[in-house]
Amino acid sequence: MIPLRWDDHPVGLRDPALVCAFTGWTDAGDAASSAVGVMIRRLGAKRCASVDPELLYTMQAYRPQLRLRDGVAEDLTWPTVELHAAVLPDARRDLLLLAGPEPSMRWRSLAETVVETARSLGASFVLTLGGLLSDVPHTRPVPLTGLATDTDVLEPIGAMLPDYDGPTGLTGVVHHEAARQGLAAASLLAHVPHYVAGVPSPKATLALVEAAELLTSVEVPTRRLREASDRYVEQVTAAVERDPERRELLERLEQMADLRDVVGEGEIDELLDGDLPVDDITPLSLGEIPSGDALAHDFQRFLRDQQPPGGDADEE
Fold it and tell me: 75 and 21, same structural domain?
């Protein structure tokens, strides 16, 4: 267990759900960390606890941030994981919201602390959020991959249920620990287009917030986030139109996305190879999809040029 630094120990929370996200490997497009950030701001959540950064980070990897004004050091901000509490009298339940950079060490101890703390505050459900780069088009709904202790809870959001063996992020460790301690748990990953890697994706953030609303029964104001999502689609589309190779990439990804909607994720590869007979569907030979690596840099520069200085996608 890792000790928490309490600012204010909340009492009387009503069946809170714990929602977690961490920046780093499983946060493509800043989708998950932004989703929890939106929920913290829009629900008026207050920080109640944090973790001593020297217990979690090597500072060569996560350096503290120094703020200077006219040559004077005004503030020094250390990386840390912070727990917020949102007391929501008009909602069915309250929320606990956990966010911060994915630590360099002590994942198991941190997960044990986080889940045990949530249990002590009355939580019975844990939701972790993430994002991953994928061969998906920005013009289609954001696909979600999910896992849960009871997969029936994922049916309303239409999340794909994967088979997977391989490395995981801290969200996977928290999910496993929640299940081990007997809490209901779910994890969601939003798929972010690989050709805009490194650019914040308010569209993926919106998809995660909307999914979290369904799973926690807590409504989150998202008007500004929806506007940011629309601008994101417009800007990426404008970047695509500037180059024929980009248009070809997008068209191929759109075809694949449309086929997945018809035949399902598990059969898409067979269909594209022409090995699967499907009524009323002509197998497509889409060719090899170009790597997004050669396109990402130009996309990032284009999109950053369109962003106003300062702020984030959910701010005025």
Answer: yes
Of 170, 58, 153, the residue nearest 114 (C-alpha): 170
Query: Would 311 be classed as within a structural domain?
Result: no
Domain CATH for 165:
3.40.50.10900
**Residues 236, 212 within the same domain:** no
Q: Is residue 14 part of a domain?
A: yes
Cα–Cα distance measured from residue 53 to residue 59, given in angstroms and rounded to the nearest whole number = 9
Domain contains 312 = no
Distance CA 127, CA 111 (A): 13
Residue 137 and residue 145: Cα distance in Å, rounded?
16
160/178 same-domain check: yes
Number of domains within the chain: 2
- Asked if 178 and 206 sit in the same domain, the reply is yes
Higher local confidence (pLDDT), 115 or 61 = 115
Domain that holds residue 69: 4-222
Residues 159, 219 contacting (CB under 8 angstroms): no
pTM of the model: 0.83
Task: Please give the Cα distance from 29 to 191 (Å, whole number).
Answer: 9
Listed as own residue / partner, the contacts of 23-26 with beta carbons closer than 8 Å and 24 or more positions apart are: 23/100, 23/101, 23/102, 24/101, 24/102, 24/169, 24/170, 25/102, 25/169, 26/102, 26/130, 26/131, 26/132, 26/168, 26/169, 26/170, 26/171, 26/172, 26/189
Structure tokens at 125: 């459900």
Q: What is the pLDDT of residues 252-310, one digit of tens each?
A: 888 888 877 665 555 555 555 544 333 333 332 333 333 444 444 545 554 455 444 44
Could you report the per-residue pLDDT of 77-134, keeping only the tens digit for each? 999 999 999 999 999 999 999 999 999 999 999 999 999 999 999 999 999 999 999 9
Do the beta carbons of residue 95 and residue 218 sit within 8 Å? yes
